[in-house]
Amino acid sequence: MQSALLIAAACLVAFLSTVGAALPYPILPPLFAADAANSLNHFLGLPPKLLFGVALAINPLGLLIGSTLLGPLSDRYGRRPVLLLTALGAAAGHAVTAASLLSQSYPLFIVARFATGLMEGNGSVARALLADELEGPLRVRAFSWLNGALYMGWLAGPLLAGLTLHWGITVPFWVAVAALLITAAVSWVAIPRKTASAATTGWWQVVKYQHALKLLKHPELRTLLVVQLALTCGVTAFYEFYPLWLVEVTHFDAQGIAWTTAALCATMTAASMFAGRVVRTHPLQQASRFALVTALCIAAVGLGGPTLGLFAIVVFGIPNAYYNAVMPAWCAERFGHLGQGAVMGLLSTIFCLANILMAVLGSVLTLIDTRLILLVGASLSAWAAWRINQWSQSPTFASPAQGAHP
Question: What is the pTM of this model?
């Protein structure tokens, strides 16, 4: 019963956090693709697509820093207080975002999105909470359910944006504020109190010397960085630019993007409910196959017309959900002795770095053709699939440390 309550609490925290993070995605493409010039989409006379790329990149930059630091900080000070403080901070960030849209201040918008991303880098903390308390097949299922909760947040966020946008462009962000305040309340009530680490290390020493990137001194984790970065570059290229593809190719507005995103997230959520049942006798080989199917879906959007592209966007959710059930659970088992908060933080950091790289590259390539960034993403994901399969055949995996459980 206690395990069930813990999983439910972690999933609820993850769900309510991603609701706020997902809200802007249906709003930004039409805003920056609008013909009418305003202070947001023509700041300093720069091309709107370039401003759009910066707006996409700045939130993941905050996520990158937050994911690198929050996991190790939660190792030192506890999961509960870190989740509570970051939820309140993210709520404040969305409130400032709403103010920046009212004043049409692009610099304030950028600062607010960065600060919000910094606070919402707490996904690694929720994963570490489950990794601390659970083992074996139950841990795999819990990670799968947590991913499902995250996907449900991405479903609810765009839906809320599409359904509330007609009341005003700031309304979705105030919904995010309310959702994150609920997250803080859940963190306060449902997550058990635990004594913080007895170490005398201060928070600055943790930030300076125990951040997630310190794990890269281990050769296997450097390999993980390379393959995971390539895969997530493909995934984030898809996430960031399929809404712009929908605007340009299918001529969708914010509500059309919201409903398409809802279909994608519903697919991912449903797939996540079954992904935890994957038999993991060879987890990296399974991850390689899921990565390859993910790459094919991204390529279908870049190369296909409206019908095939829409179908591929929705189907993308299946292999992505299965990959995200297998790989984090394998990492938790193989590298957990290095600190679950730091390990999960490294995975989140890689995802955020991929967001930044693809947003910057995409802001240039979309000036030529939006499909180019999708094809680059598909190529990177396909290479990652090949490289993960090669890695799984390395002699190092002959040892018991692989930690795969049937």
Answer: 0.68
123: which 2 tokens? 């996904």
Q: What pLDDT, in 10s, does the model give residues 321-380?
A: 888 888 887 887 788 777 766 777 777 778 778 877 888 898 889 889 989 999 999 999
Q: Which amino acid does the sequence have at 10?
A: A
The candidate with the shortest Cα–Cα distance to 21, out of 107, 104, 86, is: 86
> How does residue 205 score in pLDDT terms, banded at 50, 70 and 90?
low
